[in-house]
Specification:
Length: 368
């Protein structure tokens, strides 16, 4: 009656739905033909993830190792004595050697009676020692201050005993002099000379043909004896140019610097030194031998290592990851804007969007 039947319409179409409301979405949807699927975003996200992982691992390793700082300061403490640790092998018999120490105050110490002398053979040490080197090479091999690992020092243990002298066969032709002794903490020197030819030496003179001051220094340090710590003169050997150079003088000049190694839980107080060497033959009126002159510097070097707590590590990791993500997002947006601007200029007047009824993607524009 209302004409719906004449028009082919039914009132049932305007009635309530057969079921309840299942879903309702008031937000407009973008058609799939308008979506732009590219690989740039996925590749950029993968690159950011790899960068975050790499920087996080690097930051964790830096935190685990810690940061090392070197500080020089004027030494305020006054020490009256200083321990000297010596282990040297000289290619002469023990009965033919004298060892003495003399400091700037005029005090003399008969080190020969304070140190231990063992008879040995020179070739035993030459064949036994594999890591021995010359001082000229050691000056290049020694670690610099900024390359030092504090754990190598704070983990060292004090020892009072030196290793035993190796056994040998045959007659002894060398002497091992080793031990620790206390000396005044002032400038001084100690020297190894031949019997009857040293300073203030009395007695029968030794035949000049018996002179051979070729030597090997196994240990020379100042302060507590730490065998695991390497000093510039440790494991060094110096020999005369020829067997006929009986009057030969080896001189070492040491500059001793008090040093403190510290980390979060340990502290070690010891001494470092720099050394220069000068060796040459001398006339018969001079005194041959091994001479070590040392000078105490009025400064102190503090080498400390510090790594923050676990909370500090977490804060640094959060800062690294967030910084990479924010910077990466900005770079991606700027890059997309530049590519879009460049693409519009290149394809200006292009009717591809009109023909296909949609806006072409950047990949499609590049394929034209």
């Amino acid at each position: 009656m209302n004409g719906f039947a004449d028009q082919g319409l039914s009132e049932d179409s305007f009635g309530p739905s057969s079921g309840g409301l299942k879903a309702f979405d008031a937000f407009p949807k973008t058609k799939k033909t308008y979506l732009q699927h590219t690989t740039q975003g996925a590749n950029w996200t993968l690159l950011l993830i790899v960068t975050c992982v790499w920087l996080s691992i690097t930051e964790t390793m830096r935190w685990w190792v810690g940061e090392t700082s070197h500080t020089f300061s004027v030494e305020k403490g006054i020490g009256h004595e200083m321990q000297i640790n010596l282990d040297v092998v000289v290619a002469m018999r023990c009965d033919d050697l004298h060892v003495n120490i003399q400091d700037a105050s005029g005090d003399r110490i008969l080190a020969g009676s304070a140190l231990t002398k063992d008879h040995t053979r020179w070739m035993t040490w030459v064949e036994k020692s594999k890591n021995i080197h010359k001082l000229e090479r050691s000056s290049q091999d020694q670690k610099r201050y900024d390359e030092e690992d504090v754990h190598d020092y704070v983990g060292a243990k004090v020892k009072r005993k030196f290793p035993k002298t190796p056994r040998f066969r045959g007659n002894a032709d060398a002497c091992r002099i080793y031990g620790s002794l206390d000396a005044n903490r002032v400038q001084g020197d100690f020297h190894i000379t031949a019997r009857g030819h040293g300073y203030m030496a009395f007695g029968e003179h030794l035949d000049h043909t018996q002179f051979n001051f070729s030597h090997q220094i196994n240990e020379l340090s100042f302060g507590p004896y730490y065998p695991s710590l390497t000093n510039p003169l440790d494991d060094t050997r110096a020999v005369t140019p020829t067997e006929n150079d009986h009057f030969y003088k080896f001189q070492y000049y040491l500059s001793v610097v008090p040093t403190v190694y510290t980390d979060n839980s340990h502290t070690i107080v010891t001494n470092q030194y720099a050394v220069t060497e000068q060796s040459h033959s001398v006339p018969e009126v001079s005194v041959p031998g091994v001479f070590v002159k040392f000078d105490i510097e009025p400064i102190m070097l503090t080498i400390s290592e510090y790594n923050g707590g676990f909370l500090a590590l977490l804060i640094r990791l959060v800062n690294v990851v967030s910084g990479v993500m924010v910077a990466g997002g900005w770079c991606f947006r700027v890059g997309e804007a530049l590519l879009e601007f460049y693409g519009k200029r290149k394809n200006r007047g292009d009717g591809l969007g009109v023909l296909h009824g949609r806006t072409p993607s950047y990949d499609e524009k590049r394929s034209i």
